[in-house]
Each structure stands twice: as structure tokens, then as C-alpha cells.
Amino acid sequence: MTRRDILTCVHEPFGDAFYYGPERLSERFEDDEEGRTKGGFSDSTYQTILDRLDRDGAEGKRLFIKDMAYYLVPPDRRPVSIAPSLARIERGIGTNGIAQYLTNDLTSTMSEVDVEKDIGQLEQTAKLSNPTVIPEAILKRFQFTFLIRHPRSSIPSYYRCTVPPLDEATGFNHFMPSEAGYNELRRLFDYLRSLGEIGPHVAGQADRTTGHEEAPEPAKKARICVIDADDLLDNPNKVVETFCESVGLKYDPAMLVWDSEEDLRRARQDFAKWKGFHEDALTSTSLKPRQHWKKKKVKGKHEEDAEWREMFGEEAAKMIRETVDTNIKDYEYLKQFAMKV
């Protein structure tokens, strides 16, 4: 967002179709017509969002899109089919533009042996099925980066946004474990690897490839780029520099500062749709390495559970624990690909 000279930034556009539009995949507002319509996105389809991205990209700048992988994937492993508004593209009639890259957010323990086994199984698969409602031809127009965060941090943080007092601002008045998004992110990641759209080289891991001697041509241009939020907080300069190298941008330390009135105005404008979720970001002016005492100390389960009980109550703590444990395996799978700086 600080490089408006070369980038056009779009914040979570696919959430409009996922939550509110006629092709919505989420059940969050299914019985809440007022909540579904008051934001003005109830007519949004996956096609109208892609049309908007085409218009945004027409300025000649590169598009930077921050979004959630689970907005593209039917929740709870429901059957997948291409969004109705995009069926014509699946049949070969598409658009010319779309974006140049897309960043996916997120954010029982898996052993190293289990992780390597999963990688081996993927490499033996010629092509996985598309887990998203977006045609393969459109997905291939994006360059993907994956941002992950340990579930023990992300799940309670997200839960906090779905209960009082924040739920009044966010409009999300109950917690849905399916919105954790880790499995959807992993399935998209594996699908793109199977297509050769990412890999075999891994950004920030010198000389490491993921097992293919000769990569398809697209893979030679798009390294696997996975960023762990803790690494970003500990060493933002090096992580962002490595990210820029991976996606073909010139790094400038000024990217990590947004202290002008125009920067803050644009941030407030871009985050307005998701009110209540980005308050910490809106009160910040830069990204600096977090101090040693602020670094995440790994807590035991009992300590975590006690903290969540104190914050949210007994039943909520149980739900958070179940959701965290359910998603750790997918997080740790993606973590092995994270850049090392």
C-alpha cells in the first residue's frame, strides 16, 4: 500500500461473493438478509469481482491483492463446481487481464516424517483436482504468495472478533471454525504445485527445490513463496526484501513506513469494508522488528487453555482448542516451505 506509484492494492475482494452475493459459499449470513445486504455487496458474483480487478489493472500498474484462500473454496469440503458466473470461462471464453499476483492470508502435531511423506505423495500426482470455484485458466493469471500464522495465535485472535464487544463492529456475531482456512489454503497450495504454477524452487531457501528436476516453464518464473507471520514480525526488512525478490519488485525500506496522512487515509478507506478486524493496523505507522520481550513464547497447552478460559470462558476455550488442534497439521505442512531469512 505504500508503493502506490507502481502498485494498485485491493483488499479482500472475493469476500463479497463468498459472504454476500447470489453465489455465496458461506452460510454466515444465510438467515440474515439485513446483514447480507446492508454493505451493498449482495449482487457481487465472482465474475463481477474479476471484472473489477480488470478495471483496477487497466491503470497500467501491477495489482497487489490480499485475500483469503477459503473465499474461493466451498467450506467443510462440500462438492466443488465452478461459480455459475464463470462457467463460460471454464468453457474457454475468458478475459484478458486479471491480476499479476495474489497474496493469500490466513493464517495434532505432524512429525517431520509425516510431512515428507505428504510431499512425496504430491510429487507422484500428475495433477490434483481444482479445489476452488475459479477456473484453472484464471488462477494461472495470478502469482501467489502464502501468508501463514500459527493457529495458536490466529484462532483466538479471530474468535475475539466474533464476540462482544468487537462483533458489533465486525458484524460477525458467532465463531465458525470453518473460517480458519488452513485446509483450504493447503489444498490451493498443493493444487498450484501440481500444475507447476509455483515451485520447484522455494523463496528464501537457497538451492532448495521440491523434487522436480525439470520444472514446467511457469514454475521457473514463480518460486514457492510462503511467509510465516512470526518471521515477518521478527525480521520485517529481510522478509519483505526476500518477498520482493521473489515477485520481481525492487525493495525499498520505505515500504515498511506508512506515517503520512495520505497513507492513513487510504488504509482507512481500504479497511472500511472489514471494520473491526484491522484496528491495530490502523493505529500503526510502520513495521519494525518486535522487541525481544514481545516475541512469541511457546506456551504449553494447559497454559494456553487457561488463558483462553480467562478471556472467553470455558465453552469458548474448548472450541478454540479444538479448532487450533484441527489446523496445526496443515499449518506445519505449509511452514516447511516458509522462507528462511
Architecture overview:
The protein has a 5-stranded parallel beta sheet, sandwiched between helices. It starts with 6 loop residues before the first strand and ends in a 6-residue tail after the last helix. The chain is globular and about 50 Å long. Helix content is 42%, strand content 7%. The protein has 16 helices and 5 strands. Mean pLDDT is 86; it is low at 93-117, 119-125 and 212-220. Helix 7 (151-160) crosses helix 16 (314-335) and helix 9 runs parallel beside helix 16. The protein has helices spanning 15-19, 33-37, 46-57, 87-90, 112-123, 136-139, 151-160, 167-170, 182-195, 217-221, 229-234, 236-247, 261-271, 279-282, 301-312, 314-335; strands at residues 7-11, 62-68, 101-105, 144-148, 226-228. The chain is of the alpha/beta class and 341 residues long. The longest helix is centred in the C-terminal third of the chain and has 22 residues, at 314-335. Strand 2, helix 4 (87-90) and strand 3 form a beta-alpha-beta unit.
